[in-house]
Amino acid sequence: MNNPAASRTNRQVTRRKVTKMYTARFFSTSLGRASLASIGAMVVMCCFALTQQVNAVPSVMASTAAITGELA
Hints:
Elements: H1 4-10, H2 24-27, H3 30-55, H4 64-68
């Protein structure tokens, strides 16, 4: 009979070494510095867009007919 648990223990398990990408060594390269600049630009752009939305005043005013529900 084929036992999956037994076959798992009989196999040789090979593990790969996982390298971390975001280390000080990565950010010291030109690609790392470019990624930091890109992240910084995106944060600035999002903050700018948010402040534009917060400061915006709606220019459309509801008419009295729309408020009271009158129909023509």
